[in-house]
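Dear Dr. H.,

I hope your travels went smoothly. While you were away I took the liberty of generating a structure for the chain from your last submission, since the lab meeting agenda had it listed for discussion. I wanted you to have the full record in hand beforehand rather than looking at slides cold. The sequence, exactly as received, is reproduced here:
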Amino acid sequence: MKIAIASTDKEKSAQISPVGARAEFYLIFENKKLVKTIKNPFAVGGGGAGFAVAQMMANEKVDLIVCGRVGPNMQTALETKGIKLKLISGKTVKEVLKKIK
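The corresponding predicted structure, in token form, is as follows:
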């Protein structure tokens, strides 16, 4: 399973981002091993970030996204692309990885 975790920094010790589409970074894990770090190009800018991030994650073949919250546009886009969503806040990336099966 490929998991993308929205984070406030590029380290495993970083906090889960409170937002999905505007998260600063996405850390992508496969079998709980970090395989890619993406500085989110949609963290700042105009509208459409939710759709753009959902497409970016689909291109990365992500199965699950973990973040604090998402807007309705991103949620719909993720559902359309078959990407699962888990909303978690107040934890670090490392803590979340331990809890995901």
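Two observations you may find useful: The mean pLDDT is 95. The two ends are 10 Å apart (CA to CA).

With kind regards,
E. W.
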